[in-house]
Amino acid sequence: MTLLEKTKYYYTEKNMNCAEAIILASNDIYDLGLNEDCAKLVMGFGGGLGCGKLCGSLAACISVLGVLYGKRPDIRDICAKFTAKFNEDLKVGSIDCTPIAAKYKTAEKRCEDAVLLAAGSFEEFLKTIN
């Protein structure tokens, strides 16, 4: 199973928010050693920190980068590069929830399309880190 598929499972089947879905899917796929309660650490990122700011999907991806690469001296550069890729791939011109939701959110699917774009972008990005 891919990160994209796992993220969709948590977001649609388990009704998690964007950040929770990404963190739990990443835990499953990349064996981060987190327990399900760790999703609570990022649940407040959903809805752009609850106020439409930083996208919760991006915040969760950055959190995963910290777990995977936090001891590397170039961790900030890695995070900056992913943030730029996220921004480019979502094609909104912002990393904030409000404009992302304006483009992608629907009543039926919530922000599923944006969350899955983020997961796919993250999965691609991780393949480029050496």
Summarize the structure.
The chain has 130 residues and is mostly helical. The chain has 8 helices and no strands. The model has no long low-confidence stretch (mean pLDDT 96).
Description:
This protein is mainly α and 130 residues long. It is built from 8 helices and no strands. It has helices at residues 3-13, 18-30, 39-42, 46-52, 56-69, 75-90, 97-104, 112-126. The radius of gyration is 13 Å and the shape is globular. It starts with a helix and ends with a helix. 38% of the residues are buried.
Features of the shown structure:
single chain; 130 residues; mainly alpha
Largest sheet: none
How many helix segments?
8
DSSP summary, beta strand count = 0
How much of the polypeptide forms β-strand, as a percent range?
Answer: under 5%
Uncertain segments are none
Name the helicity range: 55-70%
Inertia-based shape: globular
The arrangement of helices and strands along the chain is HHHHHHHH
Distance N terminus to C terminus? 22 Å
Structural class: mainly alpha
The overall pLDDT average reads 96
Q: Give me the Rg, rounded.
A: 13 Å
